[in-house]
Specification:
Blueprint: H1 2-17, E1 21-23, E2 34-38, H2 45-52, E3 57-62, H3 69-77, E4 80-83, H4 90-101, E5 105-107, H5 126-134, E6 138-144, H6 146-149, E7 163-166, H7 182-200, E8 210-212
Parallel strand pairs: 1-7, 2-5, 2-6, 3-4, 3-5
Antiparallel strand pairs: 1-8, 6-7
Helix pairs in contact: 1-2, 4-5, 5-7
């Protein structure tokens, strides 16, 4: 109920304050585990992405957010769990795979951290690794406009239109029974990033493709 209440409040704020719109949201499978893999231009990305979709979103958050009892309570109620950045965090990987195998949605940012200038960064391999471990589809996502709402280091959000585009699900069945070699993870990661880049390219979409949340 806590998640549902916050979700409703954020939907209203998103509709009024940032005029959030989505494109091809139906590309998210209606059931079963799935990874949403967006670019990462703002600290607000997970909040806004969770507001945009109809299913509950689970997310990794940097462990610093969980050090105070109150913020830990809030983030855990919002389906977040901590991850140690800059190292192989086996516990967070275990949790992420478990969440996906139980049929939930989780967002994972291939870039690993928020962009300082809003543009794409060099990706890490963790998203590809978890996709193979959990054996679930991955939906590439382009988040456009959140950098203008709140860039890295900014304290308060500004009103600015945000558009979220959802690509077609990617499946990696051909790699499930093969060893998790670094080269395979690189191939999958490049494929994910290429799809995100395509989604980020400026295009003219018919008005009916836009959906106000």
């Amino acid at each position: 109920m806590f998640y549902s209440a916050i979700h409703l409040i954020l939907r209203v704020i998103s509709l009024v304050y940032i005029r959030l719109q989505t494109i091809d949201i139906e590309n998210i499978p209606k059931e079963g585990g799935v990874i949403l893999a967006p670019n990462h231009p703002s600290d607000l990305d997970s909040f806004i992405l969770g507001t945009a979709i109809r299913r509950q979103l689970h997310t990794m958050g940097k462990e610093e957010l969980f050090r105070k009892r109150f913020t830990e309570f809030i983030f855990r109620k919002l389906n977040a769990f901590p991850v140690k950045r800059g190292k192989l965090d086996r516990e967070s990987i275990r949790i992420a795979v478990s969440v996906l195998k139980r049929g939930h949605v989780i967002d994972m940012y291939p870039e690993g951290t928020v962009s300082r200038n809003g543009s794409l960064q060099e990706p890490k391999l963790g998203t590809a690794f978890i996709a193979l471990q959990a054996k679930v589809p991955l939906v590439p996502v382009a988040i456009i406009g959140t950098f203008n709402v709140m860039s890295k280091g900014q304290r308060f959000p500004r009103p600015h239109k945000v558009i979220i585009k959802f690509g077609r699900p990617l499946y990696f069945d051909e790699y499930y029974d093969r060893p998790y070699k670094k080269e395979i993870l690189k191939i999958i990661t490049r494929r994910i990033m290429n799809e995100i880049k395509i989604l980020l390219e400026p295009e003219v979409f018919p008005e009916e493709n836009y959906v106000n949340i």
